[in-house]
Amino acid sequence: MDFTGKVVIVTGAAGGIGQATARAFATAGARLVLVDRDAGAGAEIADALRRQDRDARFVAADVTRSADVQGYVRAALDAYGRIDCFFNNAGIEGKVAPTAEHDEAAFDAVIAVNVKGVFLGLRHVLPVMLRQKAGAVVNTASVAGLVGTPGMPAYVASKHAVIGLTKAAAGEVARRGVRVNAVCPGPVETRMMQSLEAQLDPSNPASIGERYKAGIPSGRYTTPEEVAQVVLFLCSDLAANVNGAQWVVDGARTAVGGAVTTMVKR
């Protein structure tokens, strides 16, 4: 998977999966435009990559704002003249609460980032790729886009929507040299899982992690680096006829069914 000279945009670049994927693309020779609303963390990652003689720049952006999304697309084109790969990754977990008790504002916040943010990324990157007649997009969905997780209605709804957007877009661009796929991680060793564990049991978050891992056939969380390698594959020429697909990276959690640990306090 050689990306020498390829131009790659990564949103949510300051998060665990975003960082790991940015590093993997950089190691494979890509030129990177890193995007996140956390300007300090995002700039630090780009600086670290440049110190390793990698070609990386950072753009602070809120993916829910069309002007910001157009801004990071324009920054990539101004710097490099094209966009070869787009990891449409930014997302948030939101609050844990049953649907009957879920806060409306919290629901709206998750939908804005996880659905509107993905849509706006597609809306403004796809025209560039269609003009080029080439490009690969990977949206970050989740196993929560394939099965339900009690206590996370906004997150589950948003990730089902990401898979729907992936399928719709893939069908629209498949004959024009552009591919759109989704990666569906299970629980990953990142800040997001730490946040969920802490919400469920603030006094003993580790106990939630132990219970959750017990329901995963592999017995562990996925690492961000494992997700990153699937993203690189989906963006590579090795996946030239993979389009509109959902690639699960979850240690067989969804394969066995019934392995969904309830995410509601008992």
Question: Could you provide a short overview of the structure?
Answer:
With 266 residues, this protein is of the alpha/beta class. Helices cover 46% and strands 14% of the residues.
Descriptive account of the structure:
- There is one protein chain.
- This protein has 266 residues and is of the alpha/beta class.
- The chain has one domain: Rossmann fold (3-Layer(aba) Sandwich), CATH 3.40.50.720.
- The chain has a seven-stranded parallel beta sheet, with helices on both faces.
- Helix 3 packs parallel to helix 4, helix 4 runs parallel beside helix 5 and helix 6 packs across helix 7.
- It is globular.
List the helices and strands and how they pair.
Blueprint: E1 7-11, H1 16-27, E2 31-36, H2 39-51, E3 56-60, H3 66-80, E4 85-88, H4 104-132, E5 135-140, H5 153-173, E6 178-185, H6 191-200, H7 205-214, H8 224-235, E7 246-249
Parallel strand pairs: 1-2, 1-4, 2-3, 4-5, 5-6, 6-7
Helix pairs in contact: 1-8, 3-4, 4-5, 6-7
Radius of gyration: 18 Å
The outline comes out as: globular
Query: Which consecutive residue ranges, at least 5 long each, have pLDDT under 50?
Result: 258-266
The largest sheet has its strands arranged as 3-2-1-4-5-6-7
CATH topology: Rossmann fold
Q: What is the domain total for the residues?
A: 1
Q: In sequence order, what are the helices and strands, one letter per element?
A: EHEHEHEHEHEHHHE
Instruction: Give the CATH architecture.
Output: 3-Layer(aba) Sandwich
Number of strands: 7
Class computed from helices, strands and strand pairing: alpha/beta
Distance between the termini: 46 Å
Number of helices: 8
Task: Quickly name the level 1 CATH class.
Answer: Alpha Beta
CATH superfamily label: NAD(P)-binding Rossmann-like Domain
Helix % is: 40-55%
